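Retro notes (design track)

What went well: tokenization of the new backbones is finally stable.
What didn't: we kept losing track of which sequence belonged to which structure.
Fix going forward: every design gets posted as structure first, then sequence, in one message. First example under the new rule, 142 residues:
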């Protein structure tokens, strides 16, 4: 039995579902996430594209692409952020806040060198990205 989590944009026009378990969860402290989200960190959950389904409102999803790494998807009616596709990684970040029934269990902090909200939670703090995602993989002491 596959666990399905339902999610929506701020106004509810865009409805999505994710199925199964995410590939990873954590916090991104990068300046881009901060600037786009309006919050100090982005709580991410990463999914294989096949696990993410737009149930309704697909015609109201717009994409903003500042770099090849991130295709940021938001609702054209409310401006609410839904998810960010990372084509080079083959993963989609469905923001933890978008899928409230997902039990958010972060495993890592990324881009911690850019943090404005230090979090002493004992989790690994990567300076940038993991090596397998093209980063240095270097850790910063907690
Ligand atoms: Zn909306
Ligand atoms: Zn980020």
């Amino acid at each position: 039995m596959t666990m399905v989590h339902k999610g929506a944009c701020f106004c509810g026009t865009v409805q999505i579902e994710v199925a199964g378990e995410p590939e990873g969860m954590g916090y991104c402290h990068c300046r881009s996430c901060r600037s786009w989200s309006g919050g100090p960190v982005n709580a991410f959950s990463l999914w294989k594209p096949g696990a993410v389904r737009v149930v309704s409102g697909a015609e109201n999803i717009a994409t903003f692409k500042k770099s090849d790494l991130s295709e940021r998807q938001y609702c054209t009616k409310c401006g609410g952020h839904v998810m960010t596709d990372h084509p080079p990684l083959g993963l989609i970040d469905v923001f933890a806040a978008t899928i409230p029934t997902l039990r958010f269990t972060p495993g890592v902090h990324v881009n911690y060198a850019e943090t404005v909200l230090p979090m002493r939670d004992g989790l690994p703090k990567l300076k940038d990205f993991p090596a397998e995602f093209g980063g240095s993989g270097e850790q910063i002491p907690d």
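Added context from the reviewer: The chain has one helix and ten strands.
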